[in-house]
Structure formats: C-alpha cells, structure tokens
Amino acid sequence: MKIYFLTMNIYGMGGTVRTVLNTANHLVDQGYNIEIISLFKRQRKEFFFIDPRIKITVLHDVTTWNKEGKNIKVRFGNFLLSKKTKLIHRDEEAIHFFSLMSDIKLYTFIKTIKNGVLITTRPSFNLFAAKYANKGVVLVGQEHLNFSIYPKGMQNSIMKYYPKLDYLLTLTDDDTEDYKNIFLDSNLTVKKITNSIPDIEPIKSPLIDKTIIAAGRLAEQKGFDLLIKSFSKVVEKHPDWILKIYGIGSEKNNLQDIILKEGLYNNVFLMGATNNIQKELARSSIYVLSSRFEGFGMVIVEAMQCGVPVVSFDCPKGPSEIIKSGIDGILVENGNIEKLANSINYLIDNPSIRLQMGEQAFLNVDRYSTRNIGNKWEGLFADIEKYHKRDNSTEWSATTSS
C-alpha cells in the first residue's frame, strides 16, 4: 500500500513539517512504502532529518528556478508564476505562495496517483484532494485547527467537500467531537491522531539557567507581541532573566519595535531559526506559549520531553489537552498578559515547584511518543486495508515486504 503525504515544503522548519517527518520516518522504519510530495522546495537542504528510504518528489524547486532565463520554457513558466491560483481556496493563509504554475503541477501530479493512500496536511490541500483526486485513492485529510477558527468561506467549503474524503484526522478531543458533529450525516470517518515526538534520548534540562524560551513562526497567531509585553513585567521583578524567541516570519520587525519600545533590548532576543530546539530547551528553565490559538502546540510536547515546565495561554484548542495545569505546567487565561507574567514569576520564585513540574512533564509526555502515536497510524492503515479495498486485483498490503 503506497502512502503519499502532500506537504507545502518538506524542506522547511514549520511544525507541520516536523510532525509529518516524525510520522513518515517511523512508518518507513516499520516497512511502509512512503512518498512525500513537496509542492515547493524553498531551501537547498532539509531542515529536519529525512530518512533516505523515503521518496521525496518536489513539484516546483524554487531554489533552482532561473527567473532570468530567456528560453521559451522559462518565459512561459514565469508567465504562469505571475498568475494567481485558480484551484487553491482563497482563504488559504499562504495564498501568496500559490500560482497558476503550482495549480498545474499539483493537479497533474495528483492525477498520476491511481491507488494507495493520499494524506493531505492543510485545509486547502484537503479540499484539493476531495475535488481532484482519482476515485481509486483513499483520501486522508489532516485538520490542525478548530472549525470555528476558519473564515466563513473556508467553513462553507469544508462542509461541502470534506465528505468526499474517507478520513479526517484531528489533534484534540474537542476538535474530534466538533468535526464528528459537523459531519454526522456523512460517511466521513473522523479520528483523533495527535502529533508525536521522535523516540530519541531526551536531553533533560537542569532548570537552573535564567533563560525562558519560546519558538514558532513570527506571526500574529503566535502572540509573541503579547509575550514581550508580558515579559516586561517579569523583568521588573527579575532583571537578570532573559527571553529567547526562536523562529522567522513576517512579524520580526514589529516584534523588534516592541522590544525597543518596552526597553527590553538586554532581556529579549529574537534568535532566528534553530534546527535543534531540544538543545536550546535543555538550556532553559521555562517554556512559554503565547499563541492566540493553536491546533495542538507541538512545541509544548517537545519542551515537556526535555523536562521543562510550560506556561501557556489556555487558547483554543490544544494546550489544555496537553498540560495538566498546576501539575506539569500552568494554563493562563487566554490573552491575559498580567496573569502570564505572574505565572512566569511564580515558577522563577519557586525553583522546587519548577523542578517538580518539569519532572512530571517529562513523565506525562510519553503518551505522545512516536512509538505510541505510530501504533495509531498503523491502526488507521489496518482499517483502510479492511474497509477500503477497491477490487480483488489491487493488493492492499500494509508493508512493502508483503
């Protein structure tokens, strides 16, 4: 059974890339036949480890495209790149990356897939597969956000086209319940399979450094503006503590302005990207998640794996499912920067509680190990093999060795 993952850019550094590769690396190690379709390649080298047994198919390599070329192929390609997408939903948050060129490349490749399982990793890809994939392909869409987060146009399209999928995978109990209710009268199967962390030997933090970290895209969703303003209240009480924010994005200049305005240039640092967040977590004592909303909060799990307690806004919908507030971390009223600062100060002022929460976090996070989550993926493929055989001539084998 060939398994395809359709991604935006598997060479990037985002949370979706990380979780897709955690899953794909695990599955190929179990003998599954895995191919990752990357619509774009925007970096010359992958940010995260990709098992060499995984086939990577890049549809448009931005790193090698010569915009200045004068031959007919390049000139026609540049024309297509200059035209807006016709096939990707207008509410796709990264719509500016898509073009008529990406439409043609994606549509053409999707039509070459005649059977197997196609796993799509963002709403616009779920919709694309529902509309254009061949009937012999089992379609598995992944949903990383709650339905209520989406604009009305996207919600309408989701309700119209998601029933054409075979499975919809969600990350939290709340999301699972919501989507089951939405598609109650359809044949769509909604299942919860959370993100996972790699089964690697964790580097536990001693929680003694006067360092707090946060990580993610420098985008409004991640709420780093709120975090910086909150941290000014931490610095008033603890001027020797620092905050490091890892990530890149469009909000960098705005965040830098807030740092200067708040006078935090000696305490708050925009660190750029890192391909080893575990190493940085091992040098920190607290992780803070300040997102306005989150589908799951992968980095919360990664912090817990390093024994680092997390202070997080109780934003919809993921953090409250991961963090047991007061036991392995602290949940704070969503958007309340005063309470966020108070909770950070509480863990700074009480190192013994910080250690206790960190140890409990380390123990509790095992439920998100790739070993455990991988079993759920294998269960999904067993269901597909059992219920979605297209005909007797198609061999639906769970592994390449069968």
UniProtKB/TrEMBL annotation:
SUPFAM superfamilies on file: UDP-Glycosyltransferase/glycogen phosphorylase
Organism domain of life: Bacteria
UniProt keyword annotations, A-Z: Transferase
Entry-linked PANTHER family: GLYCOSYLTRANSFERASE
Species per Swiss-Prot/TrEMBL record: Bacillus atrophaeus (strain 1942)
Occurrences of domain Glycosyl transferase family (ranges): 207-361
Lineage, broadest ranks: Bacteria, Bacillati, Bacillota, Bacilli, Bacillales
GO molecular function ontology, one term from the record: transferase activity
Pfam families: Glycos_transf_1
UniProt xrefs under Gene3D superfamilies: Glycogen Phosphorylase B
Name this protein carries in UniProt: Glycosyl transferase, group 1
